[in-house]
Design goal:
The complex is a heterodimer of chains A (118) and B (112).
Chain A lengths: L2 E4 L3 E3 L5 E8 L7 E7 L5 E7 L6 E3 L7 E6 L4 E6 L8 E8 L7 E2 L3 E5 L2
Parallel strand pairs in A: 2-11
Antiparallel strand pairs in A: 1-3, 3-8, 4-5, 4-9, 5-6, 7-8, 9-10, 9-11
Chain B lengths: L8 E4 L5 E6 L12 E5 L6 E4 L13 E6 L2 E6 L8 E9 L5 E4 L3 E5 L1
Parallel strand pairs in B: 1-9
Antiparallel strand pairs in B: 2-6, 3-4, 3-7, 5-6, 7-8, 7-9
Classes of the chains: A mainly beta (118), B mainly beta (112).
Chain lengths: 118, 112
């Protein structure tokens, strides 16, 4: 069965960077894009960006451009999201989710809580 | 700010029907982009329940249906059940965001 398993919770200081992983199983990793979505405590969903594992092409929401990098290690069927210059309002759950091109996000990871605090 | 507008909350009694609206504009839903709906139960990850405006993934009960009209998409839930209590989010794409995905602000459904 399709599964996206994310790395564990992180606590970071303001200004630091965090790198969250998302390991895929149960399907051919290269056939589906990986998207990342942020959800601040008690707030809604916010799209961060996407990556095509086959080509390595990426796209980012304007809000995060310059501060986020999505990458992959295809030999590990794993995608990564690195967010730099962390601020307190980056404290959130980050989800990875799968999509085939411009379609819906059909499978989601369990979420990774990133806490930014001094 | 979000480019897709949803009501913050809706409610209904068990067995009733509720409809959640998601209003966009000519740069997203009105431009022909499809709408998607996700259900997020408290403490859980979102789950896609409608794709391509009106299609249900395998395993989603037929009590859930979607539709599109103009620049809006709608999620209708018939025969409300206690387990339907959740947050619901619409999603589409927006030309003003360079074709990026855009989510609505979410609607909290309370089953009375």
């Amino acid at each position: 069965q399709v599964q996206l398993v994310q790395s564990g919770a992180e606590v970071k200081k303001p200004g630091a960077s965090v790198k969250v992983s998302c390991q895929a199983s149960g399907y051919t990793f290269s056939n589906y894009d990986i998207n990342w979505v942020r959800q601040a405590p008690g707030q809604g969903l916010e799209w961060v960006g996407w990556m095509n594992p086959k080509s390595g092409n990426t796209g980012y929401a304007r809000k995060f451009q310059g501060r986020v990098t999505i990458s992959r290690n295809s030999s590990l069927n794993t995608a990564y999201m690195e967010l730099r210059g962390l601020k307190s309002d980056d404290t959130a759950l980050f989800y990875c989710a799968r999509a085939r091109g411009w379609t819906g996000l059909d499978y989601w990871g369990q979420g990774t809580l990133v806490t930014v605090a001094s | 700010q979000t480019v897709l507008t949803q009501p913050p909350s809706v409610s209904g009694a068990p067995g009733q029907t509720v409809t959640i609206s998601c209003t966009g504009s000519s740069s997203n839903i009105g431009a022909g982009y499809d709408g998607y709906w996700y259900q997020q139960v408290a403490g859980g990850a979102p789950k896609m329940i409608i794709y391509g405006n009106s299609n249900r993934p395998s395993g989603v009960p037929d009590r859930f249906s979607g539709s599109k009209s103009g620049s809006s998409v709608y999620l209708t839930i018939t025969g409300l059940r206690a387990e339907d209590e959740a947050d619901y989010y619409c999603q589409s794409y927006d030309d003003r965001l360079s074709g990026s995905r855009a989510f609505g602000g979410g609607t909290k459904l309370t089953v009375l």
